[in-house]
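TL;DR need structure tokens for one chain.
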Amino acid sequence: MPYVEALKEIMKIHDLSQKELADILGVNQTTVSQWLLGRKKPGYDSIMAIYKNFDVEPNFLFGIDY
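>> reply
TL;DR here they are.
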């Protein structure tokens, strides 16, 4: 699941805890935890918030390499 690794990398680069990432994205910490465990996938609104707040390309989040 490429999004799990992408989220972990974003958290590492920006030195964020799960709670801090959740606050930035407007979700609760449990949701971030579920994403990082691969039990849930970010929805459209969360994906857009990730793009906007961390200036990442959509391909990065989905693990698409050209």
